[in-house]
């Protein structure tokens, strides 16, 4: 079991309140002040303390309702026609976990939104449909199921589905709650649709070459010049890596989507990853700082998060809060399973706040509550 | 005046609720979901939206109460004997502004605290006294009035005053609210006092040489190896710079305390600065993202923050929230004035969230409310 | 034509020698000194001054001789059985151009070398054969024609061909002349063959995913973790890029092989590139600092280098010295042509010595001498 | 003694020439080629191999001749009136050691040079005089004895002495030989004298504050914004550091002049250092890659370089070639001694070529030849 920390030690606040102290506190209060020792033990926890709880959103439950939104409101009315997923403990900030927002957006053939931008960063993971596209800073990007697409901090963007396509559904991920909390978000509407400055898919066709960078392109943005990561390249890469690597005991074959110009996360405030759980794989449990939203991209299995089991299959979405133990299981003995995730690791890492701990008992596996 | 943004445009949510929609929302709610368009305009503001208000804490009001704490509780009982300053709109997170905590700590001759460490970063700015010291990672650092001292993320630290010293008062600055919000804070108590591994003041005596770095020291920490910035070096440097620079229209002669190994901020999550307002200087107003806590280190004057005037003199503390216009005035026509500040610019900058705007009217000066 | 610089101006040495001065020079010479003005104009040229000349090595001429070496000496006797290519003006330092060495190595089925390492960096570009491999720091890497392989600074390496393979020929590139000139080269012999620590091709199978990096691998080396860049990935990437880019006026579709963890050159002292000249493409001429060795990987054409035409086809090797005008022509109207190159751009760029100039006349095309 | 490496091992070339091979070599030669095994052991040394020898230039010998140059030629005729010091083994490239040039420049009161710039970087160390100044990119910098001044890659610069000053003598250091070798040097003459764009000494007055950086200055150059490092700040800093540090066994208290914005070397291709040898200090011997030119700035002593003793006192200049053992001795038992040096460590380090070895015998001290 976890170490119990005791506040009855030197170095923690252990003041017994008295009438004199109470009067003192009142006096401080009138001056916009307080006595630190009355709050110290609360604001200085022994270990990281998450405010979210683990949650699972089953796509079977949500799909009908998501599609129904396309009958209830138009994209023009709604701005974006999205059902968002909200953590029971984070309703006040509209977050799915920690400071991360996620939602499911639906767009019908021939529909398209107007362009906008915001200081918050955004990403998409494609769930259903054909003929979908996004336009990022004048570059039209077409996408397919399980593709991962970014629309970074302050980049103009808009989405749509070709008239001869099929209704598209994708998961949005944004750090709106974080950027609001940091009191730095903004929003602007583009007057109409963006002009298409460059050939369709210029970004992925220029920057998807493994270990090759165009010699004559200048890129001065703080995010990846690669706007789309194609499942048809990503999945084979996972299979190749699985041939020659044991993988991580906690995560199987885990790869981060990266900015090919830096090797770092795709955007400044959110990262994303794809992991492959081999047939029958049952990882060990660990916990670490950082908040994660997962979507099952392939296969079926379950995760034990904070001692509870959450079963998932393709398109189900779930979250793992900061500093909560978690382990993943592929329920198939013959097929691999893949979990997409996005997270705030760029924030946690850049601010020096990452720490990790392996589950110390029971051969690394949690006992179900 | 500021541009008014109108939500009645394409690209913003403009849905009129109906009974059918209400029923739909109820259904979503049961699944841990919601319709984005019901919250979108609120969570995506047109401009950064601060949650704090400007506040001023006059040292004349607080000094007696701060000293009184040394009669009411011992350092052992209190952990740290500190009066903390709290923003009227941020009492829930014990913050002075944004996600920054500040307090005033008092230590009497011969007193010393036990050592501890936490993931949150801390800094001190010395207000009164003689013979004070801090011990950071085994290096004892002595300090004087207006010195600036850091005790970074996860560094062991403890404070005290020599038996033949005079009662010391200093301002503490920490990012406890931020690190709690990011669900990453922790705390540990050192068993007793740290052994003094190296000569007193090794850090400042090794790393304070202008433009010189010890060739044979290895430093692998993500924060400055210089733990103290001495007023007796800082103030002359400001005077020298003022001889040959016009200074910044919004801030006079403004310098950041930096890590001499990188030229960057002193710590990963908090920076600090010192600025000199020349005799009679009245800066222009601007606003920018990032939260700031100021202390007047020298002279007297006032700041206009969000259209209100806040008068300050030596030792007064005030705050400027994110995205609130502010300008500074030195009320003396013959003496310079100096403002120390600490802030979350390292966070704002690393996450790509900095933006700035000059006050567009009245020759750059706010009209008082 | 190029601007002519005249030394008869203020700021250049213009001293007329006299008997008194001659005596003075003699006196200086005895003290290990001299008068700067006697050498200044020579050692401070108006423009970069190459010491190499352009050269072309036709594979038709060399192939027989290269293969013959495998009858004349064994790998054990020769250390490495290599015919090296040497610039007529750089025989003293065994360089093909500038400070770059290149050679053609032949290995027969079943042969393998012992392992060694050196401070100089090395790379290979595969010209012929089947079943070839290299072992870099314990990782066996198999390769095919037109693959590009690195064996970086101080990495143990050895090469061989499988017993059931076909005689392999590849081009070696090293910066031996540079590292010797910088008085920093060294050499060590491994006692026997390296143990194979990891699965065959672990490096390329782990790091060749476009925009994906293994999350759990730690890499602390100053060079690319990707040891092989496969032609079967590189060539399609060039074709993709050519679909959506106009390319560079001087180089067509030019891509640098990069370290996927940094986006920078593959090694600290040598970089490598692949470029595609579209059917009928005739680039414009420019000159820049940095020395280049080219090998034609596909197609046929010619380059005009310093006013002379050099015709090349697959496997031919040629060089472009620093600050010599050059332009490239694909002679086919229907097929693309590809040029591999390696160069010292990492050195030139890191030391702040890069400059470039477009050919200013005749619509950017040199007039043949 | 050093390990002797034997070429008679597997992995080294051990071919016995035959008439057949001789014929083969001749054939290769006609094609601009050669057999690697005929040169391999020579171009791949077991250990770094310096081309320079240690040398000492006594100022007592040179001073008269240096001053005499001011009678023999004018600055206008000479370009720069400099006596340069040249290594007996590097006369072909006008280098004092390795690829570093050094000279002694004399300027009389009222004299000034015209402005020029070059791709090579330059630095000065002031030896004698009063009223000297340099102008770097429009910023006039005044200097005194033992000050260190930089005029970086491609920065316009010119020098002079005030009419009421005293004849100034300073040491120049440049990497002309290196930049020539890399075929990248250039030269341009400024038409007349530079306009003084900013107040005198703006650079040192703005950037000499320990641990403080101007918040509002933008600096996009790849070299230090601090153009002068004043002895009156440097020497006290060495004394402070000596109080709390044992120093380096090979170098005493050794500090690098650094770019305060990066903590790195002052320029891209040359660095500089100052070291203090405490009274009676006798350092241990080591050798490392990189070439060094020293000037004694204070005191007297000797260095043992490559087994020979070289005695020095104030203003004497000497060199240590790459990979030659050296140790330093302060001959005074009561006074400290200071050695200024400049070197190519930025090159050696950035290219991954640094290595170091302590003298393994005799308690770390060389036996004099």
Task: Describe the fold and architecture.
Chains A, B, C, D: This is NADPH dehydrogenase. Chains A, B, C, D: Keywords: Dioxygenase, Oxidoreductase. Chains A, B, C, D: One of its GO terms (molecular function) is dioxygenase activity. Chains A, B, C, D: Residues 105-170, 275-339 form the Cupin type-2 domain. Four copies of one chain form a homotetramer. The first copy, chain A, contains eight helices and 22 strands. By secondary structure, chain A is an alpha+beta fold. Chain A folds into two domains: 1-7 and 17-46, no CATH class; 55-364, Jelly Rolls. In chain A, strand 17 (300-305) and strand 18 form a beta hairpin. Chain A is globular and about 75 Å long. The mean pLDDT of chain A is 95.
Features:
Cupin_2 (chains A, B, C, D), 22 strands, alpha+beta, RmlC_Cupin_sf (chains A, B, C, D), six-stranded antiparallel β-sheet, homotetramer, NADPH dehydrogenase (chains A, B, C, D), 369 residues, seven-stranded antiparallel β-sheet, GDO-like (chains A, B, C, D), 2 domains
Lay out the secondary structure.
The structure is a homotetramer of 369-residue chains.
Chain A: H1 19-30, E1 33-35, H2 40-43, E2 55-57, H3 59-72, H4 75-78, E3 82-85, E4 101-107, E5 116-118, E6 122-136, E7 139-143, E8 148-151, E9 157-174, H5 176-181, E10 187-189, H6 202-207, E11 212-214, E12 228-229, H7 231-244, E13 253-257, E14 271-277, E15 286-288, E16 292-298, E17 300-305, E18 308-313, E19 317-320, E20 326-330, E21 337-343, H8 345-350, E22 356-358
Antiparallel strand pairs in A: 2-19, 3-4, 4-9, 5-10, 6-7, 6-8, 6-9, 8-12, 13-14, 14-21, 15-22, 16-19, 16-21, 17-18, 17-20
């Amino acid at each position: 079991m976890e170490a119990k920390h005791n506040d009855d030690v030197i170095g923690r606040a252990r003041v017994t309140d008295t009438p004199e102290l109470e009067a003192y506190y009142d006096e401080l209060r009138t001056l916009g002040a307080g006595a630190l020792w009355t709050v110290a033990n609360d604001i200085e926890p022994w270990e990281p303390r998450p405010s979210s709880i683990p949650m699972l959103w089953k796509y079977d439950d949500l799909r009908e309702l998501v599609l129904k939104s396309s009958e209830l409101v138009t994209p023009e009315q709604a701005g974006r026609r999205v059902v968002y997923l909200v953590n029971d403990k984070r309703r006040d900030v509209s977050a799915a976990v920690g400071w991360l927002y996620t939602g499911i957006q639906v767009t019908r053939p021939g529909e398209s939104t107007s362009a906008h931008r915001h200081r918050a960063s955004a990403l998409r993971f494609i769930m259903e449909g054909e003929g979908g596209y996004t336009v990022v800073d004048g570059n039209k990007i077409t996408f397919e199921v399980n593709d991962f697409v970014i629309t970074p901090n302050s980049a103009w963007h808009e989405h749509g589905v070709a008239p001869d396509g099929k209704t598209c559904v994708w998961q949005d991920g944004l750090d709106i709650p974080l950027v609001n909390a940091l009191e730095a978000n903004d929003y602007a509407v583009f007057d109409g649709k963006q002009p298409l400055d460059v050939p369709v898919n210029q970004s992925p066709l220029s920057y998807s070459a493994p270990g090759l960078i165009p010699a004559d392109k200048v890129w001065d943005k703080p995010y990846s010049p690669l706007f789309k990561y194609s499942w048809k390249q990503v999945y084979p890469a996972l299979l190749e890596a699985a041939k020659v690597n044991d993988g991580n005991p906690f995560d199987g074959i885990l790869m981060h989507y990266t900015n090919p110009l830096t090797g770092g996360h795709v955007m400044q405030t959110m990262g994303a990853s794809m992991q492959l759980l081999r047939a029958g794989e049952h990882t060990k449990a660990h916990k670490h700082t950082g908040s994660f939203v997962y979507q099952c991209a392939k296969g079926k299995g379950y995760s034990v998060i904070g001692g509870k089991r959450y079963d998932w299959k393709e398109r189900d979405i779930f979250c793992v809060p900061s500093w909560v133990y978690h382990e993943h299981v592929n329920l198939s003995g013959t097929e691999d399973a893949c979990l997409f995730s996005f997270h705030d690791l760029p924030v946690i890492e850049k601010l020096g706040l990452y720490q990790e701990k392996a589950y110390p008992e029971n051969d690394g596996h949690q006992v179900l509550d």
